[in-house]
Amino acid sequence: MVRRVFALRTGKLAVGILVFIAMLAILGPILAPHDPLGSTATTLAGPSGKHWLGTDYLGRDVFSRLLAGSRASVVGSVEVALVALVVGVIPGLLSVYLGRVFEWVSLRLADTLIALPFLVFAVAVTALLGNGITQAMFVVGVLVSPLFFRVSRAATLSVARSQYVELALISGASVGWIVRRHAWVKVLPAIAVALAQTMGVGFIIVSSLTFLGIGVQPPAPTWGGLLASDLNYLHFQPYAPVAPAVVIMATVWGCNLLADAIRDVSGENGRALVNSRKARSNRLAAQPLLVESSR
């Protein structure tokens, strides 16, 4: 699947964007040219050679804060995706095989989580457990998990009704063996698509929460926090929200592109892509032979 994704232009573009964002998260705080929390006397200054994106209302370097805030934003979205993956996929797989009681309970829990407004619920839980990025992202991940539950359940149902799985059950194979040997391989592409989409949703959620000051409190830099601090001084710097908005939009776009690329190369679409590439390579290989024969 990885080779098929890289065979697409959209897949290469998506991976390039996400690798760049990952490098920002890893090296951003190290490469920041100034202290992201340090203040100077030069407030609301425009872009210059010393301050590439200018300074904010406290004289802090905006470019340094953008680099330093990338780690919290990326880590928060990864936490959302991983929590949703674990909480949603395992019950979704097992709900097909563990009987009607477990199936009914898991479906009702998924419906309940879908009905909860995750932003309001995240605010309430972080108020009880403490205003930290880990607590907020754990709650959001649990509330987003029904996406993985429904995707993994639907894919597992299509596998469970196949003849080879029924023969394995008749032969005495355990549920765990069937999930590992048959179900997981078929479910993995659908889960990969959902994971890429959830990463994009996670960035939006993290940015929304930090915009409201939830998860990471000021003056700690985050992309959403930069947007919030810039809004009060738009009459001095109308261009200030552009940089954090562009990185958020580019990251979400990269996640969506990756999800589309994975969807395009999996299942019947993936087989058609491989067959078309093989046919094209065969035609290219046959062209010299045709030229020689015509001579």
What does this structure look like?
The protein is mainly α and about 300 residues long. The chain has one domain (about 1-295): MetI-like fold. Helix content is about 75%, strand content about 0%. The protein is built from twelve helices and no strands. It has helices at about 1-5, 10-30, 60-95, 100-115, 120-130, 135-145, 145-160, 165-170, 175-210, 225-230, 240-265, 265-295. Helix 3 packs across helix 6 (about 135-145), helix 3 runs parallel beside helix 7 (about 145-160) and helix 6 (about 135-145) crosses helix 9 (about 175-210). The longest helix has about 35 residues, at about 175-210. The radius of gyration is 24 Å and the shape is elongated. About 40% of the residues are buried. The model has no long low-confidence stretch (mean pLDDT about 80).
What class, by secondary structure content? mainly alpha
Biggest sheet architecture: none
Q: What's the CATH superfamily, by name?
A: MetI-like
Named at the architecture level, the CATH assignment is Orthogonal Bundle
Write down the overall mean pLDDT: 80
Q: Could you say which overall geometry the principal axes of the C-alpha atoms support?
A: elongated
Number of strands: 0
- When the domains are counted, the total is 1
- With helices defined by DSSP (H or I, 4 residues minimum), what is the helix count? 12
Give me the Rg, rounded: 24 Å
Low-pLDDT stretches: none
Percent helix: over 70%
The succession of helices and strands, N to C, reads HHHHHHHHHHHH
Residues in β-strands, percent: under 5%
